[in-house]
Amino acid sequence: MTQPYEFTAELQEAVSSFMQRIPFNQVLGIQLEQLSPEKVIMTLPMKDELIGNFLHGILHGGVIASLLDVAGGAMALIGAFERHHQLPGNERLARLSKLGTIDLRIDYLRPGRGRCFTATAVLLRSGNKVAVVRSELHNDEGVLVAVGTGTYLCG
């Protein structure tokens, strides 16, 4: 009989370390706020290098998509950990190393105005090989800026 899945502090640290070691995430300035089996929350402080519309100081659409993709990928990774928790460590790592975005749809609802942005991702479905994640991006005033649905290869 296999052990039940538990999202331990050690596992949370492993996912956090993995996400923080990605150079692109560092360039953007993405900060992890919460990692759990139910939800991933990340924040992104606004900085001049992320502006897409310089006349209005609006966050670039590519940055919005990237942030939603990173949050979605982290949520898919957590879902994959849960699905593959019974595998030996090296086999689980080999499967999880294949994590990647298959499809990403972003709906831009409002201009990205704000001093800080928060991305929240929840798992819609985690299968043997594919996970589907729903993400939302809000500005620091709580205004919904964009939503995304991502499909991720996860094992």
Descriptive notes:
The protein is built from 4 helices and 8 strands. It is elongated, with a radius of gyration of 16 Å. The two termini are 22 Å apart. The longest helix has 23 residues, at 61-83. It has one domain (9-153): Thiol Ester Dehydrase, Chain A (Roll). A 6-stranded antiparallel β-sheet has the order 1-2-6-7-8-5, covered by helices on one side. Strands 3-4 form a two-stranded antiparallel sheet. By secondary structure, it is of the alpha+beta class. It is an enzyme of class 3 (hydrolase). This is Medium/long-chain acyl-CoA thioesterase YigI. Its EC number is 3.1.2.20. It catalyses: a medium-chain fatty acyl-CoA + H2O = a medium-chain fatty acid + CoA + H(+); a fatty acyl-CoA + H2O = a fatty acid + CoA + H(+); a long-chain fatty acyl-CoA + H2O = a long-chain fatty acid + CoA + H(+).
Fold topology:
Layout: H1 9-20, H2 23-28, E1 31-35, E2 40-45, E3 51-53, E4 58-59, H3 61-83, H4 89-96, E5 100-108, E6 116-126, E7 130-139, E8 144-153
Antiparallel strand pairs: 1-2, 2-6, 3-4, 5-8, 6-7, 7-8
List keywords for this structure.
single chain, 155 residues, Thiol Ester Dehydrase, Chain A, EC 3.1.2.20, PAAI_dom, HotDog_dom_sf, Medium/long-chain acyl-CoA thioesterase YigI, Thioestr_dom
